Amino acid sequence: MFPELDRRNRLVRAGLLVILLVQLSVSNNVQAHASGHTTVLGALSTPRWQSSVIQPARLQNTFLAPKTLWGSGHRGIDLLTTDGAVVLSPAAGTVVFSGLVATKPVVAIKHGAIRSAFEPACGVVPVGTEVASGQLVATVCGQGYQSHCAPQLCLHESARTDAGYLSPQYLMGELAFSRLMR
């Protein structure tokens, strides 16, 4: 009887259905993202890492989280060291990378949901090796490396999850976890 009105009703219903599906999808993604953070943070509630260098180590630069995803910051810590110093695995895990990243020698270890990385570090165990906490995994290889602690040499240590970077100091029990409230 009124084909234009019937067509308009179908379009409105289809539009409402699309909006509802988008809202459900966003809600599920937010819940999955939040539960992922909860899982990661739950796993981190008891710091368990040890220092990656033999003590005493002097902290030169601390972790500084970026304000935006790609913003500036310092996504790790810098420990004063010397060329040839040993690098220890901070926790049990598997060596997943040992090589050059943009001409810088890097070693990375996967510890469950967390990945640690060290620079400048030359691996002494092959990729794929399971390592224990405190096991020798690399040596500092600063020959020709432009340290951002110049004129001194620093070992840069980072830790990250799928959710982003964390301070290794937190994982070693040297910092309390902070949480922003809305």
Description:
This protein has 182 residues and is an alpha+beta fold. Strands 1, 2, 4, 5, 6, 8, 10 and 11 form an eight-stranded antiparallel sheet that branches. The radius of gyration is 23 Å and the shape is globular. A hairpin with a 2-residue loop joins strand 10 (153-161) and strand 11. It has helices at residues 3-43, 168-171; strands at residues 58-61, 77-81, 86-88, 93-101, 104-111, 114-119, 121-123, 130-131, 136-140, 153-161, 164-166. The protein starts with a helix and ends in an 11-residue tail after the last helix.
Question: How would you summarize this macromolecular structure in one to three sentences?
Answer:
It contains 2 helices and 11 strands; from the N terminus they run H-E-E-E-E-E-E-E-E-E-E-E-H.
Helix and strand topology:
Blueprint: H1 3-43, E1 58-61, E2 77-81, E3 86-88, E4 93-101, E5 104-111, E6 114-119, E7 121-123, E8 130-131, E9 136-140, E10 153-161, E11 164-166, H2 168-171
Antiparallel strand pairs: 1-2, 2-10, 3-9, 4-5, 4-8, 5-6, 6-10, 7-9, 10-11
